[in-house]
Write a structure and sequence with these properties.
72 residues; alpha+beta; 2 helices
Length: 72
Amino acid sequence: MYMAEFKLRYGELKWYVRRIVEADSFEKAKELAERYVRAINKGEVIWELNDIYEVEKPLTITEEMVEKLEKA
């Protein structure tokens, strides 16, 4: 499992959020995390991919979740 760390910006405020990325490789995890950022950046809060780490599983970003966000 991999964990993506995202930097969120809203005006001058900024904070970090981490999500687990369900992927078979680091490259696939990075690709899914980047797609997630593009799919979720539709509001006033700006998401940026900050880093990817290999971890055990708490929260999960799946292929299905990202596809659903991309269609929204």
